[in-house]
Amino acid sequence: MKVSILMPVYNEESTLKKILKKINEADIGGVKKEIVIIDDGSTDKTIQILNNLKQDNIKIYYNKNNKGKGYSIKKAIRKASGNIIIFQDADLEYDPNDYKKLLDSIIHGDNDVVYGSRFLKGNIKGKISFYLGNKILSLITSMLYFSRITDMETCYKVFKKDIIKNIKIKSNDFAIEPEITSRILKQNIKIKEVSISYYPRTFNQGKKIKWKDGLIALKTLVYYRFFN
Questions:
Q1: 58 Cβ partners below 8 Å, 6+ apart?
Q2: Distance CA 127, CA 147 (A)
Q3: Alpha carbon 187 to chain centroid distance?
Q4: For 212, phi and psi rounded to 5 degrees?
Q5: What average pLDDT score do residues 86-111 get?
Q6: Going from the N-terminus, what domains does the chain have, and what CATH number goes with each?
Q7: In angstroms, rounded to a whole number, what is the distance separating the alpha carbons of residues 187 and 35?
Q8: Percent of the chain scored above 70 by pLDDT?
Q9: Percent of the chain surpassing pLDDT 90
Q10: Is pLDDT at 110 greater than 80 in this prediction?
């Protein structure tokens, strides 16, 4: 059994070493880890850091210029060889120590897809506008697809290999999050949610998603529900 941890990276010189240390130290019950990193045209010292990494379980690929999160994740999915696939951001908002309970829901449970929910227990963290925006998008997802989702925009999405590799993803930007969720739910595949930790960062600390991405997400949810 092997888990592939897919991590798109763009200008994360301040957090990259720290998140990799957390990933390597995370206990996932003896399951082998493969880390697939896609650098998305970084312009800071990220590439220098990546070039100096010497770990047998890390695969690194480089986009010549900035293509977007969706493009990088699609590329990482093609390169992944694990039985289970996890999405991981290169910042410190999410805690790899949550991997084990996410994986347990697939390995020891009857689940094909597991999302780590930041809000399953009603927690409010970060800017209230982002919290409310995410809650609205999650509510709309639940209504459109007749399935309860509390955190559609979560980074921590976990899949059995065949599920995610058989989805033909189109989005090259942040719209990949609602597109994947839409395509899964439209196939009547259940999404199991597990409560996770969350440590939000600010724009000054490098947060990249903006309010307009919420509008794109809404458009994406509606499009894949009724027109694709």
A1: 20, 35, 37
A2: 26
A3: 20
A4: -65, -25
A5: 95
A6: 2-226 (3.90.550.10)
A7: 28
A8: 92
A9: 79
A10: yes
